[in-house]
Amino acid sequence: MGVSVNEAVSTDPVRDHPPPARRRGGRGRSALEVALLTVLAIVMLFPVLWMIETSIKENRDVYAIPAKFFNFQFTMDHFKDVFVGAGGGRSALSVSFLNSVVVAGVSTVLATVLGVPAAWAYSRFAVKAKKDQLFFILSTRFMPPVVVVIPIFLMYRQVGLIDTELGLILIYAAFNLPFTIWMMKGFVDEVPAEYEDAAMLDGYTRLQAFRRFTLPLLVPGIAATAVFALIFSWNEFVFAIFLTSSDDVRTAPPAIAGLIGGTTVDWGLVAASSVVFALPVLVFAYLVRKHLVAGVTLGAVRR
Amino acid sequence: MASATPPAQGRSPRLSDRGLAVAFISPALLLLLAMSVFPLLWALYLSFTDYSATRGGPARWVGFGNYTAILASAQVHQRALTTLLYVVGAVGLQTVLGFSIAYLISRRTRGRGLLTTVFLVPMMLSPVVVGLFWRFMLDAQFGVVNSMLGSLGIGPVEWLTRQRTALVSLIVVDTWQWTPFIMLIALAGLTAVPKYLYEAASIDRASEWFRFRTITLPLVWPLLLIAVLFRAIEAFRLFDLVYILTNGGPGVSTETLSFHVYKVAFLGFNTGTASAYGILMVLVVIVLTQLYLRYLNKLKED
Amino acid sequence: MRHPKRKGRPFLPGRKVRLATAAMLLAATTLAACGDDGKDDGGKASAPKAPATIPELTKDPLTLSFIWFEWPPAQALEDFANAEYKKERPNVTVKVNTVPNANWHDAMFTQFAARKTDFDIAILDSQHIGEAVTNGNILDITDFVKGNIDVNAYNPYLLAAYGQFPQAETGKRDENASLYGLPLLGDTWTMIYRKDLIGDKPPQTWDEMISVADKCQKDNPGVSGLAFHQANGSDAAAVTYNTVNGVYGGNLWDSKTRKIDGVLNDAAGQEAMDVLVNKMKPLTATGSGNWFIDEVNAAVAQGKACIAFNWIAASGGLLDPKQSTLGTTREQILGKLGFATLPSQKTNLVPLGGMGMHVSAYSAAANQAEALNFMKWFEQADIQKKWAAAGGVPSRTDAIESPEFLNAGPFNKVYADSVSRMRDMWNVPEYARLVDIENTNVNAALNGAKSPKEALDDIAKEQQGVLDSSSRKGGDGL
């Protein structure tokens, strides 16, 4: 295969006059590549733009056939509906957003508080079967949620954690912990152990050396890691839909999913709540863009 | 920091390094044991019984009855095939597209940051938002996709309600969301290829394709493989997108294994069967994860 | 107001979180490990009995919680109860928790399975009763009904459909059977037709309806002849097939011998499937194969369907000018939309919809007492009429025939005329699986993934397998 392609390329007449042809061809190719990239970028972005546009359209225009791209009636009503209920009070949707903030926030704190010290310990100390432990930890993150939720459900019902925010917080913390440990271990590895050794020569205990010298250097890494954990918890749907059922506990993803399947579907409202829901994620993702590769591979790949 | 006077030695009983390691690691491991390992062991036990979460009554031991029934079930085979088609289709498409985009971006010198950011947006969205919005866009009646096709003279396509198109739609939506993932990692690999290798090659007047094949691909391949395996594991577990986009339809033609487990577990509350089903899925995931970790380990050692 | 039981577990700051979590998880692990079968014992569970008379009610503030799915009647119920029930019980607040329709059964039964419910009154679909009773999830209110409810005020079948188990024969009530619920909201399908397109007089037979729809579709480009439920979730496609099956003289099963295979797919059943897939489906819009309540409503409101079928309780939005392109006032819309009882063919059966109220076996004693009191209050004649005026569909015969009800909406007359024609599905513990099998297969047939005959035979075979599965050793529920 490879050979034949090579031969085809080498018999290309362009090769006969390398310098001018390559420059001209290069420029043409470059333009083609830019055009291709632009088209791909538009395709990737279009659904998001369409979502934003739908969120500010009058419902009549939302269902217009053919679709209206520009001359639509502008309205902010959908965004109002996201936060204000039919009766004028707080909407159920806005309550679910608050629940999401609490659940994602607290579970992230918990995963961070448990994960950072563990990552430090794995980085600094000779732990027995360290590699096995770390791989075991990561592998727990790959369990299918639909499968895990069955025994978790049985476990939670014994201890009364079904339909509670605490229940969601614990399972999210457990799902984010492997990520936190792997990601943070990378950051700790980058801080030379000599800092702590030097501090200990000055009479600090190991713990104090960690707290006073290493920890401050880890703050940016902790922030980035926490942001990823926050995004994972914020977006999570499977555990949320099976472990919660009441308005007071439900987080935003099942609440938004619940907007369809009633007697009427208000796609404008779906779009507006999706925008409100996605906006913080995009902002946060932008803040940690430097660490994206490590973040999305659960800390496994670092470049 | 400087003003702090070092404390007197031995004022407080020091934790040994070993003790410290245990104290720092055990809470995390404990949480994982309680929330991941213990539930799976419990599911393992239930998988040998006919226990039902709602019917009550003592669980009857059925040995490998659940396992043999699942492995022999034509229903399960159908879901396995659907899942396989989906995983191969989606991950394959993402890999080709993601790598191509990364390659194109890596050849640009300007606007790289902006381009990367733009391409990454879909990946950050919740599957719920992605599923809902594509369902709206793929609506046969007023969806924007059919509207655009219509202006090109292509008749309305039933994206979500025909056997073939529904699975294709799932693959397309997943590809839209996760192509950026492959792209991001491929890009990380591509930018790490040392420049001097290319320079040496261009002196030799090696063809572009030859350079790509002999320099770029071998260097990026290990990293790309990790990305592909990672996606394959995630795709194998797929549930939420199916739940929202097609609900498994038409008929059961887009029901994945995960979706089927959900129905067994929460529609009929056949907890024992669902547990066995889940354990079998976990076995597949463990094999894939082992592969993933092995390549990861190799990458780290290089 | 938040439910007291769930009220915030405090979060200890800093280091204590770790300790607390570790301790709690240890406790959870141990408890869960030993508590596995302990509580579930007792062989065939049965529903606990509610007291015959209402126990003394609390004077303290109390929240009476319901669970239902997200749709307008849920909001109507909460508003109505808080306005009217408060007059009698000022210390009680009514809260109707709602979940997405697709998640309704799972949300209720996972809580039942957890033996802890955040609701006191479950609003079960009529076919859920069997599962709830067999698992002991709801109270047996037979004695309570004897002492507190005027059973003669109801059409016997309505009372039976929303409360009796084992299931009553269609059209009857078995007075010796136990009751587990009382009617909350009656419902059935209405035919919605475009008076401006097909004329004022609705088609009388199913065949006529199909030919009228066919003609209307041909005469009006862009408007499809029919719109009905086809989705594979909830009970959407299943109810559609069951309706046609009933109209063409078929049977869903033989309840005495628990036989489905050979009954459902007999000649009448085959004809019904053939009519549905080969005569009705071609008259629907492209891509309507995943339509349920909301999509059918949208098609009607946007003037895209000549004849549509939908649940009456979900039809209120059709008259809202804000959501409709058919007119700018309710009167204008009513000038174009007609509502009629379903056409008949070999029989005049219509699907029974709606739901009853059932008291959770796991709610606190004070809440159970309040729930019983609420039900007694709700089933009074004048309250039923007020509920009808507030947008509800009552079940008492006097309320159904009252002007309050008949004047509240154009489709209410349809309901009143349909009461004697209703037929329900199977009310057995295996309902959720039966309906899923039917839904997915009918949906497959409607969307060309299976032939009509293949789909119907698969339904019959698989459903029969579910009913007979108790003898198997492992693999239940596949």
Walkthrough of the structure:
- Chain C: Keywords: Signal, Transport.
- The complex is a heterotrimer of chains A (303), B (302) and C (478).
- Chain A has 303 residues and is mostly helical.
- Chain A contains 14 helices and no strands.
- Chain A is globular and about 75 Å long.
- The N terminus of chain A is likely disordered.
- By secondary structure, chain B is an all-alpha fold.
- In chain B, α3 packs parallel to α7 and α7 crosses α9.
- The N terminus of chain B is likely disordered.
- Chain C has two domains: 190 residues, D-Maltodextrin-Binding Protein, domain 2 (3-Layer(aba) Sandwich); 209 residues, D-Maltodextrin-Binding Protein, domain 2 (3-Layer(aba) Sandwich).
- At the A-B interface, α1, α2, α5, α6 and α7 of A face α1, α3, α4, α5 and α6 of B.
Short description:
The complex is a heterotrimer of chains A (303), B (302) and C (478). With 303 residues, chain A is mostly helical.
Taken as a percent bin, the fraction of beta residues of chain B is under 5%
Count of the domains of chain A: 2
Binned, the helix content of chain B reads over 70%
* Oligomeric grouping of the chains: heterotrimer
- So how many helices of chain A? 14
User: Which runs of chain A of at least 5 residues are low in confidence (pLDDT < 50)?
Assistant: 1-23
Largest sheet of chain B: none
Keywords (chain A): Cell membrane, Membrane, Transmembrane, Transmembrane helix, Transport
Membrane topology (chain A): Multi-pass membrane protein
Region (Disordered) (chain A): 1-26
Transmembrane segments (chain A): 31-52, 97-122, 134-154, 166-184, 213-234, 267-288
Descriptive key words:
heterotrimer, B: 302 residues, mainly alpha, MetI-like fold, 12 helices, 72% helix, globular, disordered N terminus, C: 478 residues, alpha/beta, D-Maltodextrin-Binding Protein, domain 2, nine-stranded mixed sheet, two-stranded antiparallel ribbon, 19 helices, 41% helix, 14% strand, MetI-like (chain A)
Topology diagram in text:
The complex is a heterotrimer of chains A (303), B (302) and C (478).
Chain A lengths: L1 H9 L7 H38 L3 H4 L14 H7 L8 H33 L5 H11 L4 H15 L5 H26 L3 H8 L4 H30 L2 H6 L8 H6 L9 H21 L4 H5 L7
Chain B lengths: L16 H30 L18 H8 L1 H33 L5 H13 L2 H11 L6 H8 L11 H29 L3 H9 L4 H29 L3 H6 L11 H10 L4 H31 L1
Chain C lengths: L14 H20 L27 E8 L2 H17 L3 E8 L4 H10 L7 E5 L3 H6 L7 H7 L7 H6 L2 E2 L12 E2 L2 E13 H4 L7 H14 L4 E4 L8 H12 L19 H14 L12 H9 L3 E7 L18 H7 E4 L9 E10 L5 H14 L2 H9 L7 H4 L2 H4 L5 H7 L3 E2 L7 H16 L5 H16 L11
Parallel strand pairs in C: 1-2, 1-3, 7-8, 10-11
Antiparallel strand pairs in C: 3-10, 4-5, 6-8, 6-9, 6-10
Helix pairs in contact in C: 9-10, 9-18, 18-19
